[in-house]
User: What shape does this take?
Amino acid sequence: MIKDTLLKLLAVHGATGHEEKIAAVIADLLRPYADSVETDVLGNLIVRKHGAGKRVMFAAHMDHIGFIATDADEHGFVRLYNVGGIDVSVSVGQRVVFENGVEGVIGAEEDIEGAPKMQNLYADIGASTREEALARVAIGDVAVYAPAVSQLGEWRLASPAMDDRAGCAVLAEAFMQMAQANNEIVAVFTVQEEVGLRGARTAAYAVDPDFAIALDVTLTGDVPEAKPKMAVKLGAGAAIKVMDRSVICAPAVRDRLVSLAKAQNIPYQMEVLTAGGTDSGAIHQTRGGVPSGVVSIPCRYVHSAAETIDLRDMEAAVRLLVAYAGEAL
Assistant: This one.
């Protein structure tokens, strides 16, 4: 079930540039359904089903935003810098955990003018001296918001790392359901998306797909005074992207997704995102160009410790990917 897969992936540490653990979990999950499983030089996990038709690349990024330790002061507070798009305003007071298991709480310098900035943040790990802190957390260690899943009503879950473990769970579930048939299916679980779509760029060059679809979360416009204004809502179905700042989705891919959703009664909604981007932004520019699209999972409070999704949207996304994979493209 999609919920079980999602919960399994949310529990694994995997900050940007440190995706080895989550890659291992996904590889173990999909190996029984795959013709090949490999990890490339950057750490992208590439899982294939052979087929005689077109080569279709599906991509979801494994990494999530985090904080890197840059030093510690004489009182044992670990100084931090962001890895990916950290929102300082929602970080103060949040629990974090480093890859080695050390836990801490994010604090901010109080003797400053205005709202704190990234350089004002620190992690309180319970140390009293610089030496004690650096014995527990080395310079260069990365922390993420501590895993904690909340059930909101029947269908909704809130947790850190929904961006993009929700996309990884959708792709994993869809891959397990895809028939060993028409097209060659390449599921790529990418690295370092949050710092510039780096894994997707190298993976797409190596895979050389005929078509590509990225799986990621997207913003919603269904909370009070939402910014930006957009039509996407939680629980209204998989979001088929028209464009964002990184890509104008190929009409052939977008329209095929829409027609499949209509034909198979899959709940869907159209997405125009005026900020942000996904792995498709790198994939569609690879080699001579790749016709690319995006299936998004609506998500409230993106890049916070309580990113919120609706399992029904994820289920719709799984159905849509499976339908697309089985098409004669």
Q: What stands out?
A: The longest strand covers residues 211-218. The radius of gyration is 20 Å. Residues 162-177 form the longest helix (16 residues). The domain at 66-145 is CATH 2.40.30.40 (Elongation Factor Tu (Ef-tu); domain 3).
